[in-house]
């Protein structure tokens, strides 16, 4: 079966993203192509290990099983991963591999970036959210009691291997959380500075039912479009000093909702969708967009039947948003729509938000 290969070209490192519809049983063999040393440490999601562990065929002593859930992206597990690497006597010539969703990818990447001041790692995302977002771009990190990803690093993987076969066992809610990030790209596409005309909005409109049904061919194309858009952004701005901030569309408010509900009530994608709705309402109030564009955005979002989130007390969310790592001088950074598929950065005071 033909694989899709996308080259991510960043200043510090270039690496391939391979999208494959092949069986996951070939992953172990594929990994050897990208490993310099003999030893590996595989950090794998508990659910993925239960469903695919035998097929993947890794040795028991080279596996660290990470429990599922955002709360597992913590200091305790970060330390455990490093201790496992030390126990295996991994050197700088060896490799750490992340197999799972964004939680597994983020914490593994952070561990790899700090182990012996940097060791190769490979991302193998198993959720739609990780495929289209967290596995590409080199953001790694762990969460604290003060918020998500406040401790982390920019560290590029050796390779990203995407197998759409994993998506067959995603439950509907986890699939939808990935679609939340997919829909985000429709609203920022023209700001991504991608040389190729990808027309994600049209693609989603024409293939809504196939996407919701998990059609493998359509999902492969969808993931390819999203990665090309993200690749264009991170190639222009690897460490979020400018353009890359547009990828945070819907995230400032969305992260606050996640924190306010203790990461237990809503998925990341659901919170981002709520954040995008908040951003569109805010943009209308600030006369940045015509109200008809907001109605258009509402229709796009409605097609995918995301879980509804109520309006939580704005003052409490503002307190949380002030702790966002992108906040500056008592101003909260928002990415807001300015035109069809275009966004821009705005720094707003508490009074402006109220």
From TrEMBL:
Its cofactor is NAD(+); Co(2+); Zn(2+). Pathway: Metabolic intermediate biosynthesis; chorismate biosynthesis; chorismate from D-erythrose 4-phosphate and phosphoenolpyruvate: step 2/7. Its EC number is 4.2.3.4. Residues 178-327 form the 3-dehydroquinate synthase C-terminal domain. GO terms for biological process: amino acid biosynthetic process; aromatic amino acid family biosynthetic process; chorismate biosynthetic process. The keyword Amino-acid biosynthesis applies. It is found in: Cytoplasm. Pfam families: DHQ_synthase, DHQS_C. Keywords: Amino-acid biosynthesis, Aromatic amino acid biosynthesis, Cobalt, Cytoplasm, Lyase, Metal-binding, NAD, Nucleotide-binding, Zinc. Residues 64-176 form the 3-dehydroquinate synthase N-terminal domain. Belongs to the sugar phosphate cyclases superfamily. Dehydroquinate synthase family. PANTHER family: 3-DEHYDROQUINATE SYNTHASE (PTHR43622), 3-DEHYDROQUINATE SYNTHASE, CHLOROPLASTIC (PTHR43622:SF7). This is 3-dehydroquinate synthase.
């Amino acid at each position: 079966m033909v694989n899709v290969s996308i080259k991510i070209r960043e200043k510090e490192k270039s690496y391939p993203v391979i999208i494959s519809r092949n069986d996951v049983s070939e992953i172990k063999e594929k990994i050897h192509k990208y490993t310099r040393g003999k030893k590996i440490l595989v950090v794998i999601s508990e659910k993925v290990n239960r469903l695919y562990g035998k097929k993947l065929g890794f040795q028991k002593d080279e596996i660290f099983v990470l429990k599922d859930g955002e709360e597992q992206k913590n200091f305790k597990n970060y330390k455990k991963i490093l201790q496992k690497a030390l126990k295996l006597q991994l050197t700088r010539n060896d490799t750490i591999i992340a197999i799972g969703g964004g939680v597994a990818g983020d914490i593994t990447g952070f561990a790899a970036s700090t182990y012996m001041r940097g060791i190769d790692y490979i991302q193998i995302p198993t959720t739609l959210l990780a495929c289209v977002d967290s596995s590409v771009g080199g953001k790694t990190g762990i969460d604290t009691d003060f918020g998500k990803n406040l401790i982390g690093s920019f560290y590029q993987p050796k390779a990203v291997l995407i197998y759409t076969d994993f998506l067959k066992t995603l439950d509907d809610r986890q699939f939808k959380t990935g679609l939340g990030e997919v829909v985000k790209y429709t609203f920022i596409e023209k700001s991504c500075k991608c040389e190729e005309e990808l027309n994600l909005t049209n693609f989603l409109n024409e293939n809504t039912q196939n996407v919701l049904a998990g059609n493998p061919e359509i999902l492969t194309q969808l993931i390819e479009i999203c990665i090309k858009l993200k690749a264009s952004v991170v190639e222009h701005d690897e460490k979020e000093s400018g353009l890359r901030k547009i990828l945070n569309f819907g995230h400032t408010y969305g992260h606050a909702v996640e924190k306010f509900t203790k990461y237990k009530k809503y998925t990341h994608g659901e919170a981002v969708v709520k954040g995008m709705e908040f951003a569109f309402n805010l943009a209308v109030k600030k006369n940045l967009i015509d109200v008809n564009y907001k109605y258009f955005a509402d229709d796009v979002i409605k097609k995918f039947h995301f879980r509804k989130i109520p309006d939580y007390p704005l003052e409490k969310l503002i307190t949380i948003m002030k702790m966002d790592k992108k906040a500056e001088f008592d101003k909260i950074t928002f990415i807001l729509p300015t035109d069809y598929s275009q966004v821009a950065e705005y720094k707003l005071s508490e009074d402006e938000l109220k």
